[in-house]
Backbone:
C-alpha cells in the first residue's frame, strides 16, 4: 500500500521533474499501422475541472514500436471540438513537457485562454507514455541511486556511474509495464502519429511546450509530411544536444543575475543591500566547494551543500511576486556565508536526490541526456565555467543520466528540414528564448517571438500576446515579422 509519505514524495517529484547509441528507426516499422487502434469512441469526460464540452477516449499503442503485435499501452485522449464546425480547419495536438506531464491537464488549464483558437480547431490532448509510466512505476524506481555531486576526477565519476547503473537496472528489473526501455521521444513521436491516425487527420497542427520540443523534433524527423504547423513554446532543442543548450542559456542566466544584483543594490529590503551581492555569492560558492556547508532537511535528512549544489539549485531567475524569490535568495545567501545553509537545504538536497531517481531518469536518458565519459564532463565544465563564473559547472540532469544501462535510442544529431513548414516559436528573453530560437532557426522561414519578461510556457501561463501570435499562425499560417517581441504581462 502506498503510504502518505510516498504520495507526498511522488507529488514533489512530479513538480520538480516537470520546472534537458544505436541507430534509431528511420521510418514506420512494418506492421506498426496494424497495431493501432480503430477509431476511438468519444464520450463526455467526467471528473473535476472538466471544461464544458470536453470529450474523452483512449487508444492502444505498442510498448515497443519495433514489436507492434506484442505488449500494448493505453493512452487517454481528450478534445474540445471546434465551436465553429462549419469553418473547422482540423485538429491541434498539444505536446506536453516534463517529461511526465499530462497533456490533458494542460488542456484543462489552457482551455479558456485558447477560446479563439478553438473556433476553427478541435483542441486535442493526450496522456503520453511517460505519464503512464509516472503513474504506474514501481515505488522502488523512486529510490535515488545516490545524492548527486560533481565528480572531481575519474574515480569519482566511475563511482557515480556505477551507483546510477545499479539503481537503473534495479528499476528496470522491477518494471512490469515494459515501458522503462521505451520512453525515448522517437517512441513518443510514433504515439503522436497514432493519435493523428485515430483522429482521421491527414496532417496535424501542434502546440509543443518545454520538454515537448524533444518529441516534436522527433516527429519532424519521422513524419515531416504530417505537419501542417508547429508552435513551440519554451522548448528544448535536443537536436543540437543538451550540453549545447546549457551553454546557450548560461549567458542569459548571467544577465538575469546582473538584474538581481542591480535590484539588490537599489533595494534596502535586500539582505545584501549595500554590498557587492555578486562578489558575496561567488565567495560563498568558492568557500562551499572547499568546505561544504552541513545542513539538515526535514524531508531529506542530513547532507552537505557544495558550491556545485548552490550553483545548480540556489538561484531562480524569476523574481516572483513582489520580488519574493529574490528577497528569499538574498536572505539565504546571507545566512549561508555564516554557516547556516537552511535556506537552500530542502530544494538543493531534494533535487540532488530526485535527479538521481531512476524512475524519473528513465523518461529522459534515452534522449541522449547524459555524459558519456569523464573527459566529456570535464570539457563541458571548463566551457561552462568560462561562460558563467556564477553558475558554470556540471549539469545535474546529465549527471543523473550517467550510467544509463541501455543504448541511447534517440541520439542528438542533425535534423533534415526538407518538407517541413515554417515553425513559430515563443520564449522568455529571461530564460528559454535561447532554447526555442536555436530550434526554430534550423527550419527555413521560421520565426521566434521574444517574451520580454520571466516565465516559462506562455500559452499555459495565459499570456495574451504570445497566444495571439500562436492563434494567428495556427489559423492562417501567417508568421509575425522576425524580431517581434511581446511585452511582459
Residues:
Amino acid at each position: 500500500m502506498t503510504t502518505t509519505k510516498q504520495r507526498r514524495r511522488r507529488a514533489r517529484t512530479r513538480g520538480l521533474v516537470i520546472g534537458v547509441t544505436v541507430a534509431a528507426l528511420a521510418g514506420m516499422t512494418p506492421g506498426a499501422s496494424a497495431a493501432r487502434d480503430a477509431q476511438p469512441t468519444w464520450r463526455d469526460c467526467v471528473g473535476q475541472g472538466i471544461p464544458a464540452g470536453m470529450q474523452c477516449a483512449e487508444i492502444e499503442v505498442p510498448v515497443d514500436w519495433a514489436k507492434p503485435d506484442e505488449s500494448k499501452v493505453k493512452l487517454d485522449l481528450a478534445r474540445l471540438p471546434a465551436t465553429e464546425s462549419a469553418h473547422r480547419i482540423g485538429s491541434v495536438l498539444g505536446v506536453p513537457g516534463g517529461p511526465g506531464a499530462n497533456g490533458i491537464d494542460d488542456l484543462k488549464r489552457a482551455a479558456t485562454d485558447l477560446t479563439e483558437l478553438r473556433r476553427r480547431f478541435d483542441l486535442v490532448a493526450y496522456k503520453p507514455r511517460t505519464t503512464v509510466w509516472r503513474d504506474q512505476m514501481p515505488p522502488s524506481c523512486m529510490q535515488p541511486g545516490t545524492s548527486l555531486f560533481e565528480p572531481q576526477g575519474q574515480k569519482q565519476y566511475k563511482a557515480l556511474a556505477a551507483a546510477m547503473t545499479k539503481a537503473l537496472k534495479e528499476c528496470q528489473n522491477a518494471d512490469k509495464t515494459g515501458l522503462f526501455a521505451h520512453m525515448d521521444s522517437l517512441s513518443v513521436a510514433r504515439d503522436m502519429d497514432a493519435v493523428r491516425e485515430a483522429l482521421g487527420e491527414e496532417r496535424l497542427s501542434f502546440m509543443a511546450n518545454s520538454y515537448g520540443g524533444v518529441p516534436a523534433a522527433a516527429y519532424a524527423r519521422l513524419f515531416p509530411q504530417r505537419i501542417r504547423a508547429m508552435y513551440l513554446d519554451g522548448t528544448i532543442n535536443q537536436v543540437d544536444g543538451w550540453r549545447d543548450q546549457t551553454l546557450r542559456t548560461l549567458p542569459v542566466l548571467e544577465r538575469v543575475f546582473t538584474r538581481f544584483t542591480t535590484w539588490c543594490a537599489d533595494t534596502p529590503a535586500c539582505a545584501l543591500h549595500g554590498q557587492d551581492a555578486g562578489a558575496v555569492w561567488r565567495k560563498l560558492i568558492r568557500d562551499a566547494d572547499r568546505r561544504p556547508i552541513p545542513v539538515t532537511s526535514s524531508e531529506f535528512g542530513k547532507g552537505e551543500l557544495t558550491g556545485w549544489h548552490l550553483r545548480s539549485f540556489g538561484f531562480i531567475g524569476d523574481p516572483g511576486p513582489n520580488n519574493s524569490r529574490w528577497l528569499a535568495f538574498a536572505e539565504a545567501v546571507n545566512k549561508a556565508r555564516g554557516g547556516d545553509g537552511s535556506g537552500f537545504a530542502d530544494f538543493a538536497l531534494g533535487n540532488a536526490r530526485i535527479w538521481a531517481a531512476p524512475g524519473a531518469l528513465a523518461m529522459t536518458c534515452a534522449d541522449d541526456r547524459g555524459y558519456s565519459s569523464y573527459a566529456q564532463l570535464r570539457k563541458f565544465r571548463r566551457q561552462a565555467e568560462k561562460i558563467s563564473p556564477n553558475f558554470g559547472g556540471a549539469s545535474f540532469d546529465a549527471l543523473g543520466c550517467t550510467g544509463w544501462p541501455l543504448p541511447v535510442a534517440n541520439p542528438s544529431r542533425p535534423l533534415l528540414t526538407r518538407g517541413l513548414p515554417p515553425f513559430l516559436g515563443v520564449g522568455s528573453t529571461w530564460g528559454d528564448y535561447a532554447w526555442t530560437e536555436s530550434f526554430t532557426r534550423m527550419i527555413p522561414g521560421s520565426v521566434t517571438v521574444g517574451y520580454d519578461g520571466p516565465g516559462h510556457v506562455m500559452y499555459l501561463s495565459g499570456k495574451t500576446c504570445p497566444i495571439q501570435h500562436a492563434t494567428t499562425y495556427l489559423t492562417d499560417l501567417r508568421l509575425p515579422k522576425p524580431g517581434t517581441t511581446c511585452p511582459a504581462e
Observations:
- The chain has a mean pLDDT of 92.
- The CA atoms of residues 79 and 124 lie 4 Å apart.
- The chain is about 40% helix and 15% strand.
- The first strand starts at residue 43 and ends at 44.
